[in-house]
Amino acid sequence: MTEIVFTKAYFTKSAPSIRECPPETGCEVAFAGRSNAGKSSAINALTNQKLARTSKTPGRTQLINFFNVGNDQRLVDLPGYGYAKVSRDQKEKWQRDLSEYLQKRQCLKGLILLMDIRHPLQEFDTTMLDWAIRGNMPVHILLTKADKLSRMQANNALFAVQKQLKQAKLDELVSIQCFSALKYAGLDELKAKLQSWLAPVPDQGSEESASQ
Ligand SMILES: Nc1nc2c(ncn2[C@@H]2O[C@H](COP(=O)(O)OP(=O)(O)OP(=O)(O)O)[C@@H](O)[C@H]2O)c(=O)[nH]1
Ligand SMILES: [Mg+2]
């Protein structure tokens, strides 16, 4: 297994729709969440570069942006959802694009779902979870902007979401952690998750590992 060097990430492409995404080869992991949840900031913290545009104005990322992190391994910054000021047409287009991307993209190995730790599991967050689970896609939740809360408050928020996931019987496919792009907190856990999805250790008994 080669360790992914996230700091070597580079931008490759912006796609206005799923039809214009790069070819279905290798593996990718997508970052999804409400507008302003901190998707672009998380990618920048992870790569230690200003790769993805961040903004105080919600709805900044309107394209599907692809970043290479290795040989056919990609991170994908998805357009944020839930931004009140966009038109209904635009909202519907985003929803169609997201559902199509999540359900049809074969090379998609997992979903990083970002939610502001102060407002987790809002409208459409749960829809995203449902779509992913229905497609048997593992999800890793980042409770972002954890620096806005005390450690105790952050842990309480984490436990509360964990409890809800358990009650909804979603805890097998879904993992969760606190995160702060501002403080670079939670990066090791996120990197380990991405590594496991993008470059999994081959199963010792599998044909693939036997032939190597
Ligand atoms: N305090 C704090 N602010 C953060 C953190 N992460 C992001 N922000 C701020 O939140 C705002 C939105 O961040 P973005 O990374 O642009 O959010 P996004 O999810 O990519 O937003 P869209 O592209 O609109 O979907 C910016 O002002 C960031 O500086 C964090 O960990 N802590
Ligand atoms: Mg963004």
SSE order and pairing:
Blueprint: E1 10-15, E2 27-33, H1 39-47, E3 64-70, E4 73-77, H2 88-104, E5 108-116, H3 125-134, E6 139-144, H4 151-167, E7 174-178, H5 187-198, H6 207-210
Parallel strand pairs: 2-4, 2-5, 5-6, 6-7
Antiparallel strand pairs: 1-3, 3-4
Bound molecules: guanosine-5'-triphosphate (GTP) and magnesium ion.
Helix content: 25-40%
Binned strand content = 15-25%
Shape: globular
Tally of helical segments: 6
- Strands across the major sheet, in which order? 1-3-4-2-5-6-7
Helix and strand pattern: EEHEEHEHEHEHH
Small molecules bound in the structure, each named once = guanosine-5'-triphosphate, magnesium ion
Main sheet overview = 7 strands, mixed
Q: Would you report the number of β strands?
A: 7
- Given as residue ranges, the uncertain stretches (5+ residues, pLDDT < 50) are none
Global structural class:
alpha/beta
Distance between the termini: 12 Å
Mean pLDDT metric? 90
Q: Care to describe what's here?
A:
The chain has 212 residues and is of the alpha/beta class. Helix content is 33%, strand content 21%. It has helices at 39-47, 88-104, 125-134, 151-167, 187-198, 207-210, and strands at 10-15, 27-33, 64-70, 73-77, 108-116, 139-144, 174-178. A 7-stranded mixed β-sheet has the order 1-3-4-2-5-6-7, sandwiched between helices. Strand 5, helix 3 (125-134) and strand 6 (139-144) form a beta-alpha-beta unit. The mean pLDDT is 90. Magnesium ion binds at residues 39-40, 60-61, 77, 80.
